[in-house]
Design goal:
single chain; about 80 residues; mainly alpha; Arc Repressor Mutant; 4 helices
Length: about 80
């Protein structure tokens, strides 16, 4: 059942949202409804770990002080020199 809702939104935002909805070939109401539905969906926030990924867990052991972010950064710098 659809119910009417009144919102106060900045005029510029409304204009841009109407343009976007038109480009997507949907109504502004449907666009907002879809957005709100996505916000309140009951989807799990946790990422499901597949059996393959789980089987790979613990395959590699890293040194305690290993900084993987720094190592990856160094790798990218070297790669794109």
């Amino acid at each position: 059942m659809d119910t009417k809702l009144t919102l106060n939104v900045d005029k510029h935002v409304i204009e841009k949202a109407k343009e976007y909805a038109k480009s997507q070939k949907i109504s502004l109401s449907r666009l907002i409804e879809s957005y709100l539905a996505s916000l309140i969906s009951q989807k799990s926030k946790d990422i499901e770990i597949t059996p393959l990924v789980e089987s790979l867990s613990g395959v590699i052991e890293l040194d305690k002080g290993f900084d993987f972010k720094q190592e990856y950064s160094d790798y990218l710098i070297e790669k794109y020199k």
